[in-house]
Amino acid sequence: MSDRPASAPGFWRSVGLLLGAVRRRARGRRRRQRELLQQRAAGKARNWGGLAVLITISITTYANVGAALLTHGLVAAGDRLSARLVLQQLQLQNNLQNQAQQDLLPRQAAPPLNDQVMADDFRRFADQIDRSEPGAMPAFPPVLPPDPGFVARPGAGLSAMLGSLGLLLWSVMLTLGGEGLDLDVQRRRHPMWEWLFSHPVPPGAVFLAEMLAPLAANPVYYSAPLMPGILYGSIYGAPQGLLAVGLVGVPLTIAAACLGKALEVAVMLRAAPRSRGALIGIMSWLGYASMLLVIVSSVNIDQAAALLARPLAPLASLPWPWLGLFLGQQPDGSFSFVAGVLTCSGLAALVIAGATGLSVRATRAGLAGAAVALAPSRRRLRARLGANPLLRKELLWFRRDRSALVQVVLVPLTAAGMQLFNLRSVLHQVTGGWNWLCGVGVLVGTCFLATIGPKSLHSEGSALWLPLTWPHGLESLLRAKARLWAWLSCIVVGLVLCWAAFLFPAAVGPIALVGLGYLVFARSMADKAVTLATVTASSGEPGAVSSNRQWATQLGTLTFAIGVLTEQWQLALVGIVYSTMTAAAMWQNFRARLPFLYDPWSERLPAPPTLMHAMIAISCLVEGGAVLTGATLAIAGRGHVASAYLFAYGVAAAAVALLTARFLRRRGVRQASVWRWTDRAWASPLARPGPRQLMLSLLAGVGVGVALGLVGLAYLAALRHLPAVAPLLRHADAQMKLMPALHRSLLVMAVLIAPFAEEFLFRGLLYRALDGEWGGWRAVLGSGVFFAMYHPALSWLPVGALGCANALLFKRSGRLASAVLSHMIYNAIVLG
């Protein structure tokens, strides 16, 4: 064995080793992301392995090919739009000339055109435009004199502008793609310069490998040369297109990667610490958003061209030579393959040289030495950000770390945009109007809150748990976070609603009601997002979130937005109420888990019956009734809809009540503790034990039932005088008279079955849990409104009043039997 030390690797060997390290680092990040996905999915996510890599390469290849198709299609669409604009101008000119002749005005310079001939030529020429290729527009018919502005010089006009924008979008996608496809604004950038301190490698090799790192790590660069090859092949033919892949595509791809890395290096070394994360995050977001835009727009090229042409039409008269220079277009309009190759190669060389110079200059200057300004005085800070220290801490996050704006604004809006694209088929079916605009705004705000919660919690890392030593506690901090997120989403949705009010001033009232509803909905969504908080590991990775909590967070998420979009206001109100109740149930469980976040194996759920137990039981009642109704109709036929519903609801109510009671009994909850209010805080005389108190509580139930039953009859009588509702009520009365057996079945179900099951679920479980969570009138109103949501919309007011009254009666009397008796008498009076 020789004692001579191994010689240092050469320049190109060092570059190859470093690029291999970059590839391993990228594979390690992807593998770690799959592991985190496995954790979040509790081991249920499938590990696709090599298939995932193949899918990724296919998506990036389609992005580059789609960029070429998009650019080509934008040019063709620009030609068609330009020609149609000319036709509209000529038609307008013809109308003016004919009008001038009719008004006996002086004859115009051009002779008047015959309307029928014009219409036929317009139709024939428009068909030729739609079938034409870019750069080969058909000649104008003799009857249509060409507009001098239409036959524009090369490099100008709408088609040149749209084609240049498509080329610019592809350039941004490549330049700002970075070292991965994921939109991760939190990932730290680790340059290769540490190799200089521990390995005998040439500094130039390290620097070159750093500049070429995106090429080795990001698969979007693998197929990037195909884009110029496709464009060149469409003009010069397939052989020249293949040559352009190597002579044009490869240099431009290398130049884009070097420019992106140079910008990243300059930001890391020269930007202020507060702005560094924000700038890198914006760069990453621009690259990610550009790729999404390319993929989406390549599917809908004509729509993309129309959207761009409307606001940018005034800029079409400016020079737009970029696509022409890229393809080798000459001043006379012809194309030269050699000129295009030389232009692109020279541009790539200039970009590489400029990027290298920028990186060298930033590296020589070193880290930014500008000190961060100190925070303002305590008095000024209190005046600016409020007196609440928890809220002030959250607002200081935006002041001290400007990358928070990227996480709070750009990332949620990107996710909302993707949701709108996924729901485009639904949105197309909805007619345009103020409700459509408001529904889209609510949908954006909903996606905003669903995204911002986990991102914000993860961004603070281990610093989130510093409030464990605060006097306020962690729960207060998370409540402040929820309020801040709700306000931010209300700002976004409020801007959309203000725009809707400006466009539709006659609908200001309904738009204001949508805004009020979103205030409540946003707070519930923010509360649900906070309950996904987990402990961040020492490596900065968030802990796994239970799939059950993730699914619970999504309950009622889109119901409000869909209700506004489709003008189903009953559905919108149900979405608000259901999301609010779900948030309260999740927060009740979350409060019990907070002390055990660092040792989740020791945590305990709150003692049953909880609000979540009540909501699950009520949901089972509704879903079970629906399933049994469908099964009964399949057996009995569609002619027995009402009877099937009554039978199914009665069976489901009895079964759910018995199964819930058994579930609670197995967890140590006796039925006596459900049917009796054991809280001694209310020193009500009716709540004391004894036969006299029992009789008084039952008499109170009878009195409440009779009073509310009479109110219900008066309410029905008032409804019979409303033109929109009276026919429905008369039809229902006629059906009952024709089918007395159905009426008797309804009375039996409503008087003997439903009161026991519903009072057990809605008052014995739901209201009791809400009183412990909210307390006071909020719990009473919440239980009453939630009880009304499970009944027809016409009966919401009296049924909601019954729910509130029975909740107070249950708590005052201490006995659920009084509420059951009140419910029975109310149903008997109203339905009898």
Overall description:
With 832 residues, this protein is mainly α. The protein contains 32 helices and no strands. It has helices spanning 11-40, 50-102, 115-131, 158-175, 195-198, 203-211, 213-217, 226-236, 238-270, 273-299, 301-312, 322-327, 337-365, 378-385, 389-400, 403-422, 424-429, 434-460, 474-503, 508-530, 547-553, 559-565, 569-593, 611-636, 641-666, 671-675, 691-719, 726-738, 740-773, 776-789, 796-813, 816-831. Helix 1 crosses helix 6 (203-211) and helix 20 (508-530) runs parallel beside helix 23. The radius of gyration is 35 Å and the shape is elongated.
What's this, in brief?
The chain has 832 residues and is an all-alpha fold. It has helices at residues 11-40, 50-102, 115-131, 158-175, 195-198, 203-211, 213-217, 226-236, 238-270, 273-299, 301-312, 322-327, 337-365, 378-385, 389-400, 403-422, 424-429, 434-460, 474-503, 508-530, 547-553, 559-565, 569-593, 611-636, 641-666, 671-675, 691-719, 726-738, 740-773, 776-789, 796-813, 816-831.
Helix-strand blueprint:
Blueprint: H1 11-40, H2 50-102, H3 115-131, H4 158-175, H5 195-198, H6 203-211, H7 213-217, H8 226-236, H9 238-270, H10 273-299, H11 301-312, H12 322-327, H13 337-365, H14 378-385, H15 389-400, H16 403-422, H17 424-429, H18 434-460, H19 474-503, H20 508-530, H21 547-553, H22 559-565, H23 569-593, H24 611-636, H25 641-666, H26 671-675, H27 691-719, H28 726-738, H29 740-773, H30 776-789, H31 796-813, H32 816-831
